[in-house]
Amino acid sequence: MRILVIEDDNKTAEFLLQALHDAGYETSYADNGASGLELALKEDFDCAVVDIMLPQMDGFTVIEKLREAGKKTPLIVLSAKSTLDDRVHGLHSGADCYLAKPFSVAELLANIQAQLRRVSMSVEPTVLTVEDLEIDVISRKVTRAGKVIDLPPLEFELLEYLVRNARRVVTRSMLMENVWEYNFDPSTNIVETRVCKLREKIDKPFDRDLIHTVRGIGYVLE
User: Fold this and answer.
1) Helix, coil or strand: residue 122
2) What number is the average pLDDT over the span 107-126?
3) pLDDT tens-digit profile of 187-210?
4) Nearest to 175 by CA among 216, 211, 219
5) What are the CA-CA distances from residue 95 to residues 6, 19, 59, 64, 113 (Å)?
6) What is the C-alpha separation between 102 and 94, in angstroms, rounded?
7) Which of 136, 111, 140, 130 is nearest to 47 (CA)?
8) Are strands 218-221 and 211-214 parallel, antiparallel or unpaired?
9) Is the peptide bond before 205 cis (omega within 30 degrees of 0)?
10) What is the mean pLDDT of residues 49-74?
């Protein structure tokens, strides 16, 4: 899970990033509203924590512009501005939650988890597509260029994870934790072996490869 932190106070930002890292989240950071907005529009995050009193562009404006752009990323306001009017303004701007400083890490993490849970419970498409590749997560049917591809359960789950994270680089450890569901062992080559088998079916019979190796990091489907 990736969390974006937009916060101009260095000490608060360091504290937030460490707390989120300790909770198992991947993080990105921006120290002003303009760069935070640019990052949030360019990349996909599972949640964002946004301060209000930011240089270059205030947090309310950041939130409004993200919603205008159609971004549905859960947005949690974390601000010293704690009056009722501020809270109402934040929620009307498109924030999903408003926490006042000083804040409890436990409360922040609980709110992040609640927002992630809410998103995961929303209706998701049952058919996922990337270029001419299509997978039906209900029937577990895979086709490419109209040709049916038979995959065993583990390879289907591996492909589904890559498709759900299409155009993002996924590391070997991310695949181990999300597909195999156990901690990453750097001495094993199980990921490479399975990806190789998957490529034999998804890429080799076709003119163009979709699964690419990012040397020293992992893989990307695009």
Assistant:
1) coil
2) 79
3) 678 889 999 999 999 999 999 999
4) 219
5) 14, 21, 10, 9, 15
6) 22
7) 111
8) antiparallel
9) no
10) 92
